[in-house]
């Protein structure tokens, strides 16, 4: 009895050891996803993961990725960077050298994308960060791209829009000093505004720290400064608090935001307080047509909520990756060659028609794309208001 | 069964450290020779990087293959070589013990480095994991001086680390790299690697200077006030760096030169362990323990308690600063958000997991938690349930940590092992 | 002047959260001499429990099964959540602290820290990465009193927190249990010999602290209706500062220190450029501790580590 059992175990063992050969073919392309699944911004990580899975399902449904007449299976390597710089570096190193991924999508936030981009560039692996707006991410790094526009573009867009639309002269900015995206954008808005209205026209430039919930002191200061509009390039969770507190303190003038408002949660968390406000973003969910609408509807059906901008940008980045791989023409199996080929193909992409707008990469690997001004309607939907192109 | 276990134990108890190092060396050498073909034969996509942990969690079907790989490449060769070379290693160790201790230690360290180098050469992922683990060892050890040997509760280690990281980065970036923040490189970059230790020491010094700001108010009395003063200090440092546009503010500081290679990090870690070990075994270290156990009595025994505490605190901060400097140059990017509460929880966990008042403990704690964190990464969210649970269990069953209150005696470590007398 | 009073109102509201949370810290610290690093996350759990109870009640009312006015929903939510969270606190004590009663204090602090991480991650695993909006149980009305804007919520938050603090003070001063707690804080060794069960008192301390944290969580949800799993971390550490700043085991001290911390944060942002807020605010704390090293109401004694 015992012997039989042992033999049985042994048989299973052997089967397990040698079975994997069958499905370890060479015809797989691996795509690395470096996402913040745990840590500060789990929501962004979740969106990234879900979008990537949706994309993979598409590829699978198509039977694989066709490159130069040959079909390849695609495998996703999704790794969690815990929203930490050192983890993002470890994860990137692991994906490049261990999993031998062809391209990496992510990390999303600049604090991970800057050091992770360095790793990717050193190993000559193309990386596209969908969401990182820090200029350092792609600067002097031929292998690093991004999927979103940069702050120096968005700042003037907002400043011009407010000036033309409302004809206001005095502005206030409220931003998170400890987070690099809001801080960078806040500075560009200030610069753009002062170019239009002369120095001193930004009457209050107030800040707080990540995870703060009370902005009453800063808002009181802003209200006293006589500002006519508040810019707050904050993430959606803070937007809800800022807008509500501003109203409670008697503010009834416009509050304007940036692409970080572009999440379904903005309205969900903010409620009626946010109705009628404007922000600039990559795409408008409510007025969406064509591919954008298809993406939003699919995502909503599958996961139960409207995707935020990070998810939409991830989707575009994955499509860019797909196009670059296809445009490359041939997958040789030689990683170094293939990576270079994909990188070159990606740099050559012109007028890519993504769900967040048309994109062409500059020499630095930053896309030139249009911004959309969105108004939050009285039903809490993101209405297309205006499009601004560089 | 029991007999067998006893036999194995007694036959391996004779193996000196030197023998184990021989074994490890052979094992990594074997991996160099036969790793790839063996992995391919077993159906593994690549050589398992961290002893197969990652691959096991990612693809459970590969568990048997990974286990066999680890057995064949690591466990069996190490055991066999260690056992076979035991008598030779013992003789060698005994011979070396007659020479100055320095000689024997150097040989051991050389072997250890060779093992680590060959092991990590197989993959860049191992290199980065190893470097960050070694840095974690330095951090844990330096915090153990305060929280273990001195018996206080300090929360400012991320702050010291940040000071060290930024000071060292500013030093190297300003002097040797052409960069938009500081402009032209002032010195030729060929000189750089020689100046790197200087940069790290500068980082350590700045951290120690910052520590003085805590030490002066908090060591006037005994109590838990160090905990909040140091916490406040951590917030202050973070806020200060966010406001310093010279070093990039919240955007962080990047483009540090790539000088923190494995030998450098290894060398600094060894120096750190050696110096801290000597420190805690010195009169000052004993005085520190006396202060912890009974301050009044220590005072009566002519220990200048305040001076002792301040020196120990600055010393610990110095090493945290050095570790921070290395950290910045390994990642080649720092930003203030890295040095927050999360980092604090991580370092504290390593200190208490490993064991208070023990150099061994700190090494064990830092290495095991770093590797565990890496190995469990495929579990994503679950990882952050498993690691805390494990720590709670360790705390409940060994409240002072795994290897607490154990002296790190180098001589004991390198000496030959005798057969157990029956 | 209106500017100053406006900030005064702001600071009162902000400070009451710090004070409520700091009280829970302070009690555990005073009675058991432990750092309860899980407390910030218990606050988070309390807020989420409150969210669950409130949403449930709102849903029940909207179906028409029971007719409850909003204020009674709020009262019910606060009471039920306080009980449930007190229970959570007792579990935390049972798992993380009781086995470590005789261990070094710092080890218990580490288990607390780890339980905190488990609570955060558990929440993330259970509810997903979504942030939730706390139902607005009371309609916000803004009063303009001579240029100072005050909402009914703000008044309610400050009043309820002061009431809770008063109730706690009465409990600790007037009841037998409170006396046992004070005795325990006074002498940890002798009190058990007098027939007072250490375990019961420890559990009670945790339960009370957690209940207060739950109340704080719900009030927080009303004022700042965005909840996320990591919301308790920063609060916890800052309340920890306030608790120790107040002096060991002093209810009045912790309350005052909590309010003080709120005032410092608000007024520093008012007077100085707000980018420097943390830098200046915590430098002030550092200065206070330099000149008053025992906190506000702490006795000058030497806290011994039981190592």
Structure in words:
The complex is a heterotrimer of chains A (390), B (422) and C (307). By secondary structure, chain A is of the alpha/beta class. Chain A has two domains: 27-148 and 289-369, 3-Layer(aba) Sandwich (Rossmann fold); 151-281, Rossmann fold (3-Layer(aba) Sandwich), CATH 3.40.50.2300. Helix content of chain A is 45%, strand content 20%. Chain A contains twelve helices and 16 strands. Chain A has helices at residues 2-18, 42-61, 85-97, 110-122, 151-166, 180-197, 216-224, 236-248, 264-270, 290-303, 309-328, 335-348; strands at 28-35, 65-67, 70-80, 103-105, 127-129, 144-146, 171-176, 202-208, 229-231, 255-257, 278-281, 352-354, 357-361, 367-368, 371-376, 382-388. In chain A, the strands form three sheets. Chain A has a seven-stranded mixed sheet with strand order 8-7-9-10-11-15-16, sandwiched between helices. In chain A, α8 links the parallel β9 (229-231) and β10 (255-257). In chain A, α5 (151-166) crosses α6 and α11 (309-328) crosses α12 (335-348). Chain A is elongated. The termini of chain A are far apart. Chain B has 422 residues and is mainly α. Chain B has two domains: 2-121, no CATH class; 124-412, ABC transporter involved in vitamin B12 uptake, BtuC (Orthogonal Bundle). Chain B has a two-stranded antiparallel sheet with strand order 1-2. In chain B, α9 (192-218) crosses α10. The longest helix of chain B is centred in the middle third of the chain and has 27 residues, at 192-218. The model of chain B has no long low-confidence stretch (mean pLDDT 87). By secondary structure, chain C is mainly α. Helices cover 72% and strands 4% of the residues of chain C. Chain C is built from eleven helices and four strands, in the order ααααβββααααβααα. In chain C, the strands form two sheets. In chain C, strands 1-4 form a two-stranded antiparallel sheet. In chain C, a hairpin with a 2-residue loop joins β2 and β3 (148-151). Chain C is globular, with a radius of gyration of 20 Å. Classes of the chains: A alpha/beta (390), B mainly alpha (422), C mainly alpha (307). Chains in contact: A-B, A-C, B-C. At the A-B interface, α1, α3, α4 and α6 of A face α4, α7, α10 and β2 of B.
